[in-house]
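Archive entry. Fields below.
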Amino acid sequence: MALDLILRNARLADEAGAFDIGIAAGRIAAIEPHIAAEAREERLESRLVVPGFVESHIHLDKSCILDRCSPEHRNLQHAIKEVAAAKCAFTHEDICSRSQRTLEKAIAHGTMYMRAHTEVDPRVGLRAFEAMQRLQHDYAWGIDLEICVFPQEGLINDPGAEELLIAACERGADLIGGCPYTDSDPHEQMARIFAIARRFDLDIDFHLDFDLDPSWMHVDEVCRQTDEHRYGGRVTVGHATKLSMLRSQDLADAARRLADAGVAVTVLPATDLFLLGREHASGAPRAVAPAHRLVEHGVACAIATNNVLNPFTPFGDCSLLRMANLYANIAQIGGASELAACFDMITTLPAKMMNLTDYGIAVGKPADLLVLDCNDRSAAIAEIATPLFGIKRGRRSFERSAPRLIPPCSEKI
Ligand SMILES: [Zn+2]
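PREDICTED_STRUCTURE:
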């Protein structure tokens, strides 16, 4: 067997024992307990090999703008207002350079697939969309970038936004999103987004139900329209923080409704924790939808980053492992199988949500592999294991050195 690279003594997520993984022509050519072939080798010493992380929800275009925004009065309305004002001045080069900084951090933390939610409206025109197309091309060596265009400021109430969305779809947007809570007619916005999606045969990803009032939900209408258009398996909602306020039986009912409609859910712990519940002087709710419980009912759920260094979230290192650890911590999850389920929410489940048919570790699939400094999925989440290196289509795409202690007896100055 002619191989380009052999990863020796690797652990795999669902398999006992260790395996060698043979790579040839950018694809996985063999997975066996011992591959008897000559090729360049990496000895992994029982470290975990997983497919690259999947970031299903991030805003590259408005990342890294804290220095342009007021730090006062941080809440959702303030964040939307600040960014709406700032984006009028976004240029192509400016968006590219900030997005590039964020994208490179994500690649260096093991992310190999990404859905970039990208604002298209009369303030920013198609500049953010065009910047994402440039990055999609320039960084194809390290990441598969999917562009989701959406109207952050609304659609019905924002003349010109719909024409720009359609123009982006004509020019190759990968999917379309919505933000019904910012619109004067949320249900009509959903209907128009579904109409555009069907016209261009695109999947849909809505920002939705981003508050803590469980007495009504836009997701009910999304499920209804998904059924009406037979769009099951092609629709995702992000945030859905209202779900965090439901009683157990109501949550189970909502989960079954989502699963039946084929609507997926992405939770965004950093933003949800930072912006919501501020009206509580003490005892603020955790405000993050219990995704692991939705998964138990068959909903495809993901944990994602959302915002980085902007008024929505003034934090961010683009590490999905850190985000999954944050989720597990606030969801009070600690058992090995539950932590492994959290790992699936940054790998296999968002891959299902994004319909990545070539995702996973199996002979014949693209060699998109990540080596973590741990032995299993639960340890990866609990310890926020270091991603040591990544391989994208058979080529090394990033590496990080493991830390090394230097006790006095070995000191060399
Ligand atoms: Zn978002």
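CURATOR_NOTE: Residues 57, 59, 117, 207, 238, 306 surround zinc ion (CB under 6 Å).
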